[in-house]
Amino acid sequence: MTLPVCLNLNVNGSVHRVEASLETPLLYILRNDLSLNGPKYGCGIGECGACAVLVDGRAVRSCTVPLGAIGTRQVTTLEGLGTPEHLHPTQAAFIDEAAAQCGYCLNGMIIATASLLNRNSDPDENDIREALRHHLCRCGTHMEILAAVRRAVGYMKIERTRQTPSNTETPDVIEEASP
Fold this sequence. Notes:
Layout: E1 5-11, E2 14-20, H1 26-33, E3 52-55, E4 58-61, E5 74-76, H2 78-81, H3 89-96, H4 106-119, H5 125-132, H6 142-163
Parallel strand pairs: 1-5
Antiparallel strand pairs: 1-2, 3-4, 3-5
Helix pairs in contact: 3-6, 4-5, 4-6
């Protein structure tokens, strides 16, 4: 490993000053230095998906991403998706579908779903299964997880509808027509 350096790391919308070797896995910084416990240490080789985070909106395995590869990119962990008062639609869907047993895979499944919905607002069943196929769940909640992803798709559609201004709104000022 190389000598530690001081870096500014953008995580969950806040800049954090960290001191570590550029080769340090991002997961170690998130859990040990920033106390973010959403991403889990699972296999340590990027196979299980428990450590997934979003980097600029795309899911990556933080156990295999060196700190030096992050630079100024935006990192979002499970904790940064939503707030307790306003859950991300994916978080709400997983809760509503009771899509967890032990919960160890949950971080990766939710992050993979959020990443999928960032790039495809209307995924079909094949898209959903493809997005989750490299995430391991040992408890057997696959059917509930798939149902949660389908529900998250619906929740995201509702949220987009609420954020889109209606074309039927009346303007604040009504112009008079010339005679």
